[in-house]
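Let us work through a complete example step by step.
Step 1: write down the sequence.
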Amino acid sequence: MKRLIALFGFLSVTCSIALPAVAATGEVLGVGVPLTPIIRGPDDIAVGRTLVLDASASVGVGEDVSYRWYRDSLPQPISRTVEAVYTPEEPGVTSIRLVVSTTIDGEEVEAEVEKQITVYERKIVLIADSSIPTEKLQIHQQTAAEEGVFLRVLQPVITGAPLGTEEALVKLIQEQSSALNGASAIVLWTEGITGLQAFMRAIEQDTERMQSMKNQSIVLISDRNLKVLGRTARGPFSVLGPRQILITRRVAMNPLISSATVEQFVEELDKRDTDYLIVDKSTTGIRPWNLLSSLVNYMLTHGVSSQTVILLLMLPVIAMILAFLKQVIGITTFGLYTPSVVALSFLALGWPIGLAFLLFIIITGYATRAFMRRWRLLYIPKVAIVITVVSITLLLLLGLGTLFHIILARDTIFVLLIMSTLSESFLNVKTEEGLYSAILGTGETILAALLCVFIVQWPWLQSFALAYPELILFTIAADAILGRWTGLRLVEYFRFREVFKHLQEE
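Step 2: predict the structure and record it as tokens.
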């Protein structure tokens, strides 16, 4: 019976996904006056815990105010004051209705509002990023409801660049921090350690919440290498100080829901032969000779975004790939710095958005340069004007993106400005070697940057670099080997194929 009650209640409250239900607007029952009752209080409560609801934030209250609180279909009010206190004894969904009566301009008006409160025996909080389908989360909610478990899902809506994923999670967790109350387990289902990093940043300033984490277990769900994730999770573990961080696969969701304790959950994973890894005090020691690992963990635990660290770690890999393309393949790019910056820009913005912005920047710069030919200006002031026009173009593009609900992270504006260096390189080559050479160099630069993005975007490579940053030093050895390359480039075999034919004939 309890399960049926819980199932009915949870299916009616699926809007709990990232929706703060702390206030509602009542329907005016008397004349049309702006009286809006508001109920403040938690959306869920454990069985046997005291629930306190407050109506002091109600809007449009006049004189001679009276409050009446009703529970479910009971005809008698449970309170006649501005507050209502209630202790639920059974799980399910409880409906609390508030009726406010007041006198405004000599007329008596009345309005009401209703709030649904979930009463649970066991609660799990699931924090997921936007890559997890909402339908799949709702299926897990339904499965949990059938088991008599309240699964509270928090999921932000990401419409911007990848750099905004962690920031959106941090903001969501801070706004919905009350949703963590009473949870027997906190589940993070995100790409890599993004969710763990965001969770740490969101609650590390909350002293009370940090104290409660000592007896809390965190479950990290991922499809990536568990050992690599376990190594990168050491830093957040040392800051949060939970009982343990259990890293496992997505198939572990159902065993977690059906297990009453974390110990039973681990036993169930062993029975089902499901991969898992536990990070606790016995596994978080960092060896002193792993200097880069210590540095990365220090940065991650002191507010530096994991995406920022990944971009920095990927830069040597990008430079090595570009060095190989130029020295061995023989492609023509605008140096090494420009395609490296463009590749980082594509990583930060996503290559479709980044490529669109880049083409707009180049076209705007070329059009502005062509328009200023008649003015006979010196080079430096001319470049300053081009940068100004490019900045205005970027402002217009950002406004257009906002119109289509594409909101970029605040840090990406600097990425866009750095991308404008390609525009200057394009104009210089066009002036010195002609339009064809400029277009060819720009095209090969963009293609090289896209190839780098395709390689360094591999999730396993990013996780591996974040867990073992010392391996980045091997790129120096690879660059040194490329520096001793004395053979012909691959492109030159095609370029001079006629010469090779004549040499063979002779």
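Step 3: interpret the result. DSSP finds 21 helices and 13 strands in the chain.
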